[in-house]
Amino acid sequence: MQNDTKKRLPGSLRILCETAPDFGVEAEQCLEGTGVVVFDLYDNTKTITLAQELAAIENFLRFAGDHSDLGIQVGRRYRPQVFGIWGYAILSSPTFRASLKVATEYANLSFLIAALTVNETHDPPLLSFDAIALPPHIRSFVLQRHLTVVSNFSSVLLPDFKLSNFVFETTLEDPKVAEAIEAGLGMTVRLKSEHDAVLMSNTFLDMPLPKHDPDVMENCLKQCRDLLKNSKVADQNWSAKVRDVALLDLRNDPSIGATAQKLGVSERTLRRRLSEEGTSFRSILVEARLVIGHELLREAKLDVSTVAYRTGYSEPSSFVRAFTQHFGYSPGKVKFAARDPIQQIQ
User: Fold this and answer.
1) What is the 3-state secondary structure (H, E, C) of 74-107?
2) Which of 183-197, 216-230, 264-278 has the highest mean pLDDT?
3) Sign of torsion over alpha carbons 82, 71, 45, 233
4) Percent of the chain beyond pLDDT 70?
5) Rounded mean pLDDT, 210-237
6) By CB atoms within 10 Å of each CB, which of 21, 52, 157, 271 scores lowest?
7) 64 vs 216, which has greater pLDDT?
8) Do β-strands 197-199 and 188-190 pair in parallel, antiparallel, or remain unpaired?
9) Element (H, E) at 190
10) All domains in the chain, ordered by first residue
11) Closest to 213 (Cα-Cα) out of 203, 205, 224, 221
């Protein structure tokens, strides 16, 4: 689960409160005891904590009564456009795998409650939701909502996408919840699992997405990076802090120990903080190198070997392999697009 004291924008709570009357629950009832008033939900200068949103969900579930599919019904309101630049970055990705990478790396710009991770070492790959710390009834709501958001994005990314092709394994035990998910989303559900995860296939993850636009994607990612660096949402974001330190010393292969010292914390504490945000020092370092590499290829028009050296890779082949896996296209295509801006990366 995400850090429940971290500040976040109130958009998700606003959607909940706007949907609640459909189930006979007033917005004020959802907000009881949260310290949030309805006016705050429409004030762009206000932030809330995850703990406040969870308290509102608890209120909503209590007042709404016995419905097994509330998370799905509320989740249908979370269309991709409500997520702003995070959503547009996902929609402009080249493959479903790349879209999930964007979703997880910039999750702090979203309304996620359960931290999202992709486990590609598992066979088949898993799209996992970390919701185990939540009470079962809230966990059910959150997982249903998150699955519905995945469905909402997927139907735009791939118009012929069918969730019936996938299996959701969950720690939940209530057969009514399984029936609700299967009826509402078409997924097969396996209860009493060790994790909460959607089983996917590598073939599906590597499918090209028809809405991919490399220029739009890069512009969206730049805005995502700027938001994480400058917005209130990123005030306690250790990933952003590590990224800023790493960018200053990429060529010298910065270590987590040296980075922790610069940030004034122990290495152990830094590892824990990054783990809580669903990432690692190595993942952040790789992402920082590749983002800088992309900028050098596109704007400075340097050759691949030079870019590989400047971003800390000892071999150009290693840079090319990592770059292609991260962005879904090769460094050569960036060079080509930089020479001929009329052409687009396919």
Assistant:
1) HHCCCCHHHHCHHHHHHHCCCEHHHHHHHHHHCH
2) 183-197
3) negative
4) 90
5) 75
6) 21
7) 64
8) unpaired
9) strand 188-190
10) 1-65 (no CATH), 67-209 (no CATH), 237-339 (1.10.10.60)
11) 221
